[in-house]
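Sample A.
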Amino acid sequence: NGGRSWERLTNGVPDAIHAAARATAMAPDDADTVFVGLGDGAVWASSNGGESFAQVVEGASAIYHIAATPQ
């Protein structure tokens, strides 16, 4: 619905994450692919619209901007 409503999605994301989400992006060619960048340098990704997430980057500098490009 274009972001008019939100639902908290945590499947696959550990409860122990203490860093705040600082950036989000959706793949322009696949609305089910979502990326979330955190202040601790981690990036989490979902390929099923947020039903589950997996960490795809760790140990980077704090993530404040993130972009997804078409594959």
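Sample B, a different protein:
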Amino acid sequence: RMAAAEQEIAAREAKSRPVNDVCPVLDQPADPAQFVDHAGERIAFCCQKCKAAFEKDPAKYLGKLKRRETK
């Protein structure tokens, strides 16, 4: 049971972590506290203005999204 619980915790942590380290709007380091959950992914932004720009027109910025490499 303990292993199953540890796996569940790890899965939740992975899901709550942004898929990117760089803001898709301004190409600056992303702040994990500024995020949007979009299509099952958590996307981080450098600031509130970029987050708002993405929420207004996600399609414009999804192509610029640089996903972090997973191990």
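Observation for Sample B: The chain has a mean pLDDT of 90.
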